[in-house]
Amino acid sequence: MKRQLTLVSLYGDKHRDLAALIAECQQLAFEAVGAAFTPYDIRQIHATIVGLERRGPAACNANFSKHRGEDVAMDFAGFLACLRACERIPFEVQLGGFARRDEPFTSRKAVPYERSFSVQGDKVVVMGWPVRGEPRSAPPAASAATRREAPIYPPTLDLIRRTAQRYGILHAYHRAQTDVDNDLFFRIGLVDPEAMTAPATRALEHRARQLMSARPPLVIGIRPEDIYVAAYEDERLPLSSTRTWSLADPGVTGDFVAGLA
Questions:
Q1: pLDDT bracket for residue 2 (50, 70, 90)
Q2: Three-class DSSP labels, 20-49
Q3: CB 36 within 8 A of CB 191
Q4: Residue (of 227, 258, 259) closest to 244 by Cα position
Q5: Residue 129 burial (CB count, 10 A)
Q6: Is the pLDDT of residue 104 over 50?
Q7: Which of 105, 110, 133 is nearest to 209 (CA)?
Q8: Could you give the domains of the chain?
């Protein structure tokens, strides 16, 4: 595979609480299917902000070509300047702490409890969402109005991804103009789909969702120094073949990124 680019967050060393949560979920997957589960190295696990994959010699955006049938050149300099000036960065995300009930938002028409952990084909996924304010677990009997007072779940990621289109960069899950994607999505490992029977999948998802729901909400800050341009040859972003440069590094210019081809 030729080298490609993407914009990711939280690559490399992790906050100990995030690393512990990922490790617990990986252990549940191993207990469910044994050697049919291949965990990712904690340091290679990341959450994509938006893909910067290229198509053709003119550095046209691969997602615009694939999903919209358009050849659009990416403006790396403009996008980097936008991110560095963006009032939405830094931001915080919440993982876990979602009870099995309605919340102020949904993800793919599902409640956060269901989306917080899932098996998607051969991928084992943990998910979180931008949050503003102090997360708190309301008792089950609390009214919807009470639960919505705090915290607030802003569409931070969706707006950043939507803004990227101004610079010729289409997010993979913004295929249609009306698509919304505010998910912070971590792949924590791969499973052999043949080992994941429907009962095994349901059992693993139930155990992991219960684990994440029972935990206090984990809030992780994402600052410019936690966001990276990554050059990769393998979409799993293994440490051995992936190079990253922080958004906080002033040497990461549009020309620099364009030259990573």
A1: confident
A2: HHHHHHHHHHHHHHHHHEEECCHHHCCEEE
A3: yes
A4: 227
A5: 24
A6: yes
A7: 110
A8: 4-256 (3.90.1140.10)
